[in-house]
Amino acid sequence: MSSPSDSEPAGAPTGVIHDLGYRPYGGPRLGERAVARAFFVTGLRNTYGLGRSGRSKVLPFILLGVMLLPALILVGVLVQARNILGLNEQIVAYSTYPLTTQLLISVFVASQAPALISRDLRFRTITLYLARPMRRTTYVLVRLASLTVATFLLIGAPLLLMYVGGLLADLPVGRETGRFLGAIVGAALLAACLSGLAALVAALTVRRGLAVAAVIVVLLVSYTVVATIQGISGDAGRPAVGEVAGLFSPYTLVNGVQVFLFDSPAATNTPPSSDAMGLVYLLAVVLTVGGAIGGLLARYRTVHP
Amino acid sequence: MISRTIVRLGVRSVFGRWRGALLFVLPLVLIAVSVLVRVLVGENETGAQHTLQGLGLVVIVPLVALLATSGLLAPEIDDGSVSYLLAKPISRYTIVMSKLVVAAVCVVVFAAVPLFIAGLVMLTSSPSLAVGFGVGSVAGGLAYCALFALLSVMSRHAVVIGLIYLLIWEGLLGGLLDGVRWLSITRWSEAVIGELADLELVEDLPVTYAVIATAVVLVLGTWLTGQRLRAFNLTGDE
Fold first, then answer.
1. Is the pLDDT score of A222 beyond 60?
2. Is residue B223 part of a domain?
3. Residues of chain A with C-beta less than 8 angstroms from the C-beta of B163
4. φ and ψ at residue B204, rounded to 5 degrees
5. Where are the bilayer-spanning segments (chain B) (predicted)?
6. Which of B55, B157, B238 has the CB atom closest to A224's CB atom?
């Protein structure tokens, strides 16, 4: 048996890449923008379990249904019994509704943030994403955008239902539209704050169960602490303490901003009473969202593809 | 009945990485709030009671139990290393009991003792409130541990199911519907506290029923977890 180098004369090529006739991709190569858009839509669908297993659809849709149920009942009462009860406005104010249903919103954010973020880190899918023409910054921002829009839909859907119901019940159109738009801005701010915090916590752990628990701990404990302090400071005649405490939970924070910007009815004991405090609330929202984005970017800088 | 090695491994898995930090944060938050309340309103029985009940008993105790219990069995089942533990010639009940001992110690250290301290901080003159909340939170916390242990061998989504149970059943419905008190661990421990501290936290719930129900959940949860682990099937879902 002889090796190929024996039979071939020196200097001739020793290896050949054979053209097997496979056809390379010749179509247009879409850039980062198209990747980001597709990634955003996939992420948004995934938060509601679309494109995932049937089991993952159960929780988000139950939560959406339970979010809509009280709004539906309120609209029903408003339409049917408006004249009997002498109602001239929504039974529950738009800006109060997210606070009333905050447990459901917290469960949604806590269960879906790890589904979007922790799994990519745990199963190293992020390696594949970063191999595409998409930068880390884009990855982080798009993931956050998917989660924010999904949360916004969850918070906004019952508000829209109440608004439409209110119009059908012949409430004054101009006033209702103004209040509804204010509440929608509030819903967007709340969605951004909650998603930012949840995404940051979820990015710090690769275990899904722990991430869910950690997000709930952050949201639930902060709200309970703030509500306790606000209740007691209101009773003790020291509302300033309660106003400062309100900065530390996304729910009371965004409600305070709505009171400040749109003069909505307050859902907490101690809403911001002065313009300066209102500005501080607004600044706190900006800092929460900005800080969450900054923290996420810093976290992903050390992720090696 | 208790295997010291499993206890040691359990402690390490509870305090590994982030879970331990969360366990330390919860009692610190409670004590900080109690100091703030004391500064704001002085020695005020209603304020102290609202804080201990609303923040301590309803939020901190179940969350500590959930964090501790979910760190014991679920991660091992998740990554499959539970098979090495189950392959050892140790009774499955011993495994469950040893793991629950760790969870119970966590509940005492990170929930019951902080509640007791917070009670003393807010109401130094009458320590019976602090003692009541301390003892009541041990009872409730242990029952929660047994329940969450059972959940974590039954489903891979134990944490999510446990949280939904806590938030929706104990939190939302427990506040709205009075009938929930017959089937709510938090309400049972409130009845125990009411008896010890001479308060009325929950209406029309005999303390004997509360004690028996808590004990039943604790024993039945532990036994069913062992039973379930005896015939454990190592198959993945999804």
1. yes
2. yes
3. 107, 110, 212-213, 216
4. 55, 50
5. 21-41, 53-74, 95-123, 129-151, 158-177, 207-226
6. B55
* CA pair distance B186, A26, nearest whole angstrom: 65
Put simply, the answer to whether A233 touches B40 (Cβ < 8 Å) is yes
| Contact map slice: A 90-109 vs B, CB within 8 A | 103, 106-107
B161 reaches A (C-beta below 8 A): no
Residue B208 backbone phi and psi in degrees, to 5 = -60, -45
Quote the pLDDT of residue B100. Answer: 94
Print the domain residue range for B134: 4-230
**Structural domain contains residue B237:** no
Of B50, B63, B159, the CB nearest to A209: B159
Is residue A70 less than 8 Å (CB to CB) from chain B? no
Asked if B185 contacts B144 with a C-beta cutoff of 8 angstroms, the reply is yes
Quick one: average pLDDT of B164-180?
83
Please, which residues have CB within 8 angstroms of residue A43's CB and are 6 or more apart in sequence? A116, A142, A143, A145, A146, A147
Dihedral class, residue B14 (left if φ above 0, else alpha if ψ from -120 to 50, else beta): alpha
The ipTM (two decimal places) reads 0.85
Provide the chain B residues 103-142 that lie in CB contact (below 8 A) with chain A.
none
Check pLDDT > 90 for residue A264.
no
Residue B185 inside a domain? The answer is: yes
Distance from CA of A54 to the nearest CA of B (A): 10
Whether residues B70 and A210 touch (CB distance < 8 A) is answered with: yes
pTM of the model: 0.87
Token digits for A298? Answer: 């810093």
Helix (H) / strand (E) element for B23: namely helix B17-41
Q: Does B74 touch chain A (CB under 8 A)?
A: yes
Q: Report pLDDT digits (tens) over B190-217.
A: 999 988 888 887 778 889 999 999 999 9
Contact between chains at A229 and B22 (C-beta distance less than 8 A)? no
Give the total number of structural domains in chain B: 1
Residue B83 is encoded by which pair of tokens? Answer: 């098979």
Chain B interface includes A209 (CB < 8 A): yes
Sequence ranges of the domains in chain A: 30-300
Copy the structure tokens of residue A91: 């039974």
Please, which residues have CB within 8 angstroms of residue A117's CB and are 6 or more apart in sequence? A143, A199, A202, A203, A211
Token couple for B143: 């029952």
Q: Answer whether A228 sits within 8 Å of B71, measured CB to CB.
A: no
Between residues B42 and B138, which one has the greater pLDDT? B138
Return the amino acid letter for A298: A
Handedness of CA B73, B78, B79, B84 (dihedral sign): positive
Q: Which residues numbered 173-202 in A keep a CB inside 8 Å of some CB on B?
A: none
**Is B130 within a domain?**
yes
The whole-angstrom distance between residue B50's C-alpha and the CA centroid of its chain comes to 19
Q: Which of these, B225, B230, B233, B208, lies nearest to B69 by C-alpha position?
A: B225
Cα B14 to Cα A129, A258, B19, distances in angstroms: 32, 41, 6
Identify whether the C-beta of residue A129 lies closer than 8 Å to the C-beta of residue A42.
no
